[in-house]
Amino acid sequence: MAVTSLALPQIAHRLLRLLPPEEAHRAGLALVKFVKPQRLEVPEEVMLETWLGRLAPPIGLAAGLDKTGERVAHLSALGFGYVVAGSITLAPRAGNRRPRIVRREGEALVNAMGLPNPGLDAFVKNLARAAPAAGVPVVASVAGTDPGEILKCYLGLRGAASGVEVNLSSPSLSEAAAIWSEEMFRLLVERLSEAKWCPVALKVPPLARSDLRELVLKAVKIWADFGLESITAVNTLPVPEPRLSTGFGGLSGRPLKKYMLESLRELRRIIGDGCEINAVGGIFTAEDALQAFELGAKTVQIYTALAYRGPSIVRQMITDLAKTLRKLGMRSIEEALP
Questions:
Q1: Which CA distances in Å does 7 have to 19, 76, 310, 311, 313?
Q2: Second-level CATH architecture of 42-336
């Protein structure tokens, strides 16, 4: 029997929190297919024209929750304006050995999943079946350490996704630093530009990573100069974590917000209006989202917030955003942008 509201899923979410995080993730994905929320009427205030078209709302699900592309339609029903699936790599990956994800105080996660995914071919088949029922743009996140690998993934997704997000910044990509060099990155951008068939976003790491900061800032300028559409800021922050099998992982959730806001300010300074920005990292409330919009983001993405606050969070953010904009005398999010 289908669940017609989010009340029962919220109760189930509280029970899932009693499980270790990876088991909770797996069980939550299995349960989400039974959720059939009532149709959500998104207020006009919470709609925006973006690199993916007009989004209602401009709130996306960040990469990492649906790693196979099989659940995008069920997840979009939670109220998302778009869904990012993956990250996927050209060949299948099993990921790191367990434990590979832990909770931290302050509504945070640290993961060293190792990019487990079924590989490009299986992912495309899954997405071809699931994406048409999503009713919103579905973006495929691709990861790799070589321009040729990224290009093959990009070309292989033709017709299966509405856009592609290029993830070069996962802590699981131990050899990815080389691709941020100006020579390698320019080669990647040139190849993507020549093969262009859909909008493309670049996912960047927090600028707190001193080893990558200057390389990333040069890279985003190249990205914008080539006319590519979007940048997603930011990925997780590498931190030590002895509870993980790897001894370290990527920090997400509330503590990432300050790094995300700093990155938005710096990116907007460098690229101006050259391309759009998707803000991700520590966004849990309408107030968080509005801060990102005021710094120039055109969309926001959430993931860890969903894990901590449950499936009703997107609808709550939509409702609260509309109320806040009206209170401020604004007719749309567009008026909050710089």
A1: 20, 17, 10, 9, 12
A2: Alpha-Beta Barrel (3.20)
The residue among 73, 9, 70 whose CA lies nearest residue 35 is 9
Of the candidates 200, 145, 148, 185, the one whose C-alpha atom is nearest the C-alpha of residue 168 is 145
Report strand pairing: 82-88 vs 59-61: parallel
Q: How far is CA 319 from CA 57, 80, 302, 333, 336, in A?
A: 11, 13, 16, 13, 16
Q: For the chain, what is the largest distance between any 2 Cα atoms, rounded to a whole number of angstroms?
A: 55
* Distances in whole angstroms, Cα of residue 95 to Cα of each of 67, 79, 112, 151, 247: 12, 30, 8, 22, 15
- Residue 56 in 3-state DSSP? coil
Instruction: Please identify every residue annotated as catalytic.
Output: 170
> Per-residue pLDDT for the chain (338 aa), expressed as one digit of tens each?
334 455 555 666 666 676 778 887 787 777 777 766 566 789 999 999 999 999 999 999 999 999 999 999 999 999 999 999 999 999 999 999 999 999 999 999 999 999 999 999 999 999 999 999 999 999 999 999 899 999 999 999 999 999 999 999 888 776 667 889 999 999 999 999 999 999 999 999 999 877 789 999 999 999 999 999 999 999 999 999 999 999 999 999 999 999 999 999 999 999 988 899 999 999 999 999 999 999 999 999 999 999 999 889 999 999 999 999 999 999 999 999 99
